[in-house]
Design goal:
mainly alpha, flat
Length: about 110
């Protein structure tokens, strides 16, 4: 019994150690990636090109959103369905009336 308990404690300790080692390794990799990114400096020309590209992307996004809005407005006008006249009986009313007739039989006046 004691041997099994000691062995399970060692396995638990080993597993916890591996988990914490993986966490520290990931933390170190993230710190390294942020340090590398901070070292890279952009020149004014690269910055100007980035601004121009960003303007083009924004213009494209605005054009797409305007086209989608116009398309939705066009679809909204096409899909209008008029209400039926009051003489038309809904499917629910028809089924209830049919059930009542089947239960009571046909009534003649």
């Amino acid at each position: 019994m004691t041997q099994n308990l000691i062995q399970s404690l060692w396995i638990t300790l080993l597993g916890m150690g591996l988990v914490f080692l993986a966490i520290v390794l990931l933390w170190g990799l993230m710190a390294l990636m942020t340090a590398i990114r901070l070292k890279r400096k952009t020149t004014s020309e690269e910055h100007a090109e980035d601004i121009e590209i960003e303007k083009e992307r924004k213009a494209a996004a605005i054009a797409v959103s305007a086209a989608l809005a116009l398309m939705q407005q066009a679809e909204a006008h096409v899909s209008i369905f008029p209400l039926p006249p009051t003489a038309v009986v809904s499917a629910w009313q028809l089924s209830r009336r049919t059930d009542n007739l089947n239960k009571q039989g046909i009534v003649r006046r």
